UniProtKB/TrEMBL annotation:
Domain HTH araC/xylS-type: 211-311
One Pfam family of this chain: HTH_18
Full protein name: Helix-turn-helix domain-containing protein
SMART domains (alphabetical): HTH_ARAC (SM00342)
PROSITE patterns to which the protein is assigned, alphabetical: HTH_ARAC_FAMILY_2 (PS01124)
Keywords on record: DNA-binding, Transcription, Transcription regulation
Organism encoding this protein: Stenotrophomonas aracearum
Amino acid sequence: MPLLRFKDFEAYSDAFAGVDGILRALSPNQGEWILHMLDAGEVTASLGRDGGTGVYHGLNHVDRYLAYMALPGSDTAMQGQDTSDDMFVWFPPRAEIHGHTRKISRFMGLSMDAAAVVQRAREVAGLFDEHVARTHVVSIGRLEVAEIVKLVTRALMIDLEDPTLFQAPSVRKAFSGQVIHALLRCMVLDNPEAVRRSRGRPPVPRNEIIRRSLDHIHKAIRGDAVIGDLVLSAGTSQRSLNRAFDEAFGMGPQQYYMLERLHVIRKALREARPGDTVTSICSQFGVWDQGRFAGMYHRTFGLLPSVELAAALAR
């Protein structure tokens, strides 16, 4: 979706995804009200820049969760608490939202399908229902929040460059799954006591751990699963999973996943057709940071993805 630019603050607030509310201006406009949105199905991401200061109150939609992040340089209060770049505010369906800004501010909003969040919270993160079903501040640290902001910002930029990419179900599913998993992971790290702990789990044989893991890794690469769910899929502990992969392949499961994804993308690059780009191919497999990926690709295969693609198209 292209950047939405508003001269009117009311039109700006009416465009917010997953929320019905009212914005009251506190000062004359000092610039345009800008909103960049990306609808990926289970997640709708919004990056906003206010054109002035204001007071906001609204109601989250009945079938959506919302994560709100004030971006660096902002001066915002949400739910009566000053925000910062090391936290986000979690809103369940039908939650009341109250906030105000003291200067021109920027925010990121992540509106998520309620069914997808609940399923992942129960089956993957192990969070109690009451933990995800209440409004609260998740104070986790700048690095964790910055990683989520970086992921979403990169996806928004890719969408601007090629709006057709996020029409592919695999790309939408990969992005949505990564975002929801990252937020729930932060909630677990913020409050470990909110997680159900299973006891007396029977041990899983190493070969079965590897079989289940490889099946899940291939699904994750195709966009049919999220790599963060690997421990659940393997049916064992993180320690046992790490040990099984180290014994079988001499590397950890995450490293193996990245290696396997490199080879799958290499095959896709070598089979590229006119109109394909490195970005479009990488996005199909959930890779949003092309700079970092290009470095890994070069270290593994001795050439850059762009060179691989150019050679394929020349053939």
